[in-house]
Structure formats: C-alpha cells, structure tokens
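Lecture notes, part 5. Sequence design as translation. It can be helpful to think of inverse folding as translation between two languages: the language of shapes and the language of residues. The source text, in structure tokens, appears below.
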C-alpha cells in the first residue's frame, strides 16, 4: 500500500460541477483530493475483498442472534415498540441494497474492522463514479500506466441490484428520500436514482420532511400516493424515536435499508462480534462499557454515532483524542485502539463497500486527526502489480 503524488486533472472542478458533485469542497476545505492516490497490489485487494465478505457474513450471524433475543434487542437500545418490526424484517428476509465496512489496513497485516456503516453509508458517489472517472482520465493523460486498475465494481453492482428489486422483488415504483439542506445526502440520493434509472426501475424523490401519513396509516408522497417502497438516507435510530415510529409496522413499506440493518449499524455489534468470534484476525477486542476488560489503549464509542462524534481515545488512563457531539446517552462500547497507517501528517482509513452480500470496491479517507470525521479528505486509488 503506497501513497503516490500525481498531477491533478486541470479541469476536475469544472467536471465535478458538470456531474453534480457539489460537495467536493465543504466549508472552504477540500473534501475530494487528487494530488495523490493510493496504490495496491492485486493480492492486497483480493485480501480486502475476502475479508470484507467474511466479516459481512459474521455480521449477519449477529443479526440472526439479536433478532431472536429480546434481551439483546434491549441491549442494542432498540425501542421496545419497534422490536416486532425489526424481527419481522429479518424473518421475512427483507432485501438490502448496500453497506460499508470501515477497515484499518496497511497492506501488510490483516485488516481490522472498526465499524459497520450498514444503514446510511455515504461517500458512495465519489467511490463508485468520480474516482473511476479520475482513473480513466489519468490513464488517458498518460499520468498512470495503461494497465492501472481499480477495485471498483460498485456502480455496476448497484444497477444490477436495482434491476433485481424490479424483476425479482416486484418493485414497481421506488421512492427516494433524504433530509433537506444537505448537498452531500441529496447528491448521494440523486446518484442512486441515476442507477435506478439505468436499471429501468421507476422512481420518485421527496424530502423526509414531506412524507405524509394517510388515513389508514400508510405513508404518502406529495401527490398523496401511497409509498410502497422507500429508500431513506436517514438513520433507523432516528426513525425509531420519531412520533410516527408507532406506524412503521402497519405502513406496509418495504424499506431500503431494511429495519434489520439497525442491528449491525449499531456499535453494539462490535462487542457481540468479539464474543461470538473471539481472537478473529480481522476483529478488535471490544466490550460494552462497564464490562471487565484489560485494555490499556482503547477507543470509547457511543452505540449511535456518526462522523466520529463523541468518540474518545484513551491510553494508560489519559485522554489522547476526543470529538464532541450529541451522542452517548444510549450507552457506550470500548474497542481496542488500532493505529491507522500514517502518511506524512495524516491517517488513512479504508471504506470497503458491499452491494447486497458482495464486496464491490473501496474508497479511502485521510484525516490529520486519529478520528475520521465528516470533513476527512477523500483520495482515489489504483491497483498495479
């Protein structure tokens, strides 16, 4: 795993604007960066692919265990009035679309799982589309070898999956939704709509705030049409605490992501994985806060946390790094600290994507901090032997 400098495409900002990548710079700071790239060997990528597939299957075993245990549903802080809803989504095998595992990997030792973004993973557009465009442009410009490749079948697999929703699962219309006032979320959803269009799946967009409730308890769109299938870029832990959450069971919606994803997008996944698969080479020791452990260098994480919020790193009883935020009341877990590979003054994290159950590509984020956050920089990658 090598970090290489490279000349930026002279017009990439114009290209980004043309293709709707409005969030390449956020709050005056660069988010998309292409003054460098990461280089992997094919063997390294195959290792990441196999690791991703194995960890995903282990996570599904956790879902099966939690969905069949009221004690564990309570421990995961899923509200009691939503238990049946979550359990039924698993028992009926409601289909999923995608997820992203955050891995620490230096190209040498085994990749280690930090967490599973199984519900509302972002950086999708830049991984599936924009970094592939970067690869083709840089090869054509002679800045990369002609045989350079990329671990990235994400767009093709998304289109295939939307076709399966239409042809195998009977989706006649799929609504897409996200919150207002977020360019990144709207851009991600627009990209997914483009993939659905490529698959021939009819779709409509509306903001989460504009979803209505019909007289019979069904969810409706702005034209008062009943919503039967809905992709929402909105976390289950938020939805479970909304007033309308009591209507979820009876609304008759097929959700993307399905409600069982609330189990493995929860940081409680991590101690349960460690309990079920102790000493697995791709896992880090993890425990619920308050449980006995012998870790001296560890990370404390809320069960529900996004973009690095409320995460703290402790070494020998001393706080090393901390990010404030609104999470933590629901409970915490403790996970052994795993140093990320460092290049210059930045730390690098790999996001490894799956579509349904299949590994589909990677994206890399850099941050000056030990804790990867929402403005961490995105860098493309290549495969070259």
């Amino acid at each position: 795993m090598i970090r290489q400098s490279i000349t930026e495409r002279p017009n990439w900002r114009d290209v980004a604007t043309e293709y709707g990548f409005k969030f390449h710079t956020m709050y005056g700071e660069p988010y998309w960066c292409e003054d460098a790239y990461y280089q992997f060997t094919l063997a390294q990528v195959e290792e990441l692919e196999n690791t991703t597939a194995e960890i995903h299957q282990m996570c599904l075993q956790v879902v099966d265990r939690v969905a069949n245990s009221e004690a564990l549903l309570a421990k995961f802080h899923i509200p009691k009035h939503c238990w049946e809803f979550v359990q039924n989504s698993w028992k009926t095998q409601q289909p999923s679309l995608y997820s992203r595992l955050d891995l620490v990997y230096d190209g040498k030792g085994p990749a280690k799982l930090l967490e599973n973004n199984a519900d509302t993973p972002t950086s999708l557009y830049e991984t599936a589309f924009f970094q592939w465009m970067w690869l083709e442009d840089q090869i054509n410009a002679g800045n990369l070898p002609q045989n350079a490749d990329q671990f990235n079948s994400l767009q093709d697999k998304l289109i295939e999956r939307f076709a399966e929703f239409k042809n195998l699962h009977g989706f006649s219309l799929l609504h897409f939704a996200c919150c207002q006032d977020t360019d990144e979320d709207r851009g991600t959803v627009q990209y997914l709509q483009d993939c659905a269009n490529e698959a021939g799946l009819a779709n409509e967009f509306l903001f989460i705030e504009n979803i209505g409730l019909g007289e019979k308890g069904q969810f409706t769109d702005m034209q008062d049409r009943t919503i039967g299938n809905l992709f929402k870029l909105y976390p289950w832990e938020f939805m479970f605490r909304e007033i309308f959450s009591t209507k979820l069971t009876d609304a008759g919606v097929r959700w993307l992501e399905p409600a069982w994803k609330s189990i493995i997008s929860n940081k409680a996944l991590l101690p349960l994985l460690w309990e079920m698969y102790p000493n697995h080479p791709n896992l880090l020791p993890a425990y619920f806060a308050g449980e006995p452990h012998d870790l001296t260098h560890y990370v404390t994480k809320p069960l529900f946390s996004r973009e690095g919020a409320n995460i703290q790193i402790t070494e020998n009883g001393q706080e090393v790094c901390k990010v404030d935020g609104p999470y933590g009341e629901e409970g915490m877990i403790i996970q052994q600290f795993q140093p990320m590979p460092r290049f210059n003054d930045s730390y690098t994290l790999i996001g490894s994507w799956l579509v349904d159950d299949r590994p589909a590509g990677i994206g890399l984020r850099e941050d000056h901090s030990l804790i990867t956050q929402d403005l961490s920089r995105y860098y493309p990658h290549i495969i070259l032997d």
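The translated text above is only one of many valid answers, since several sequences can fold into similar shapes. The first strand starts at residue 2 and ends at 5.
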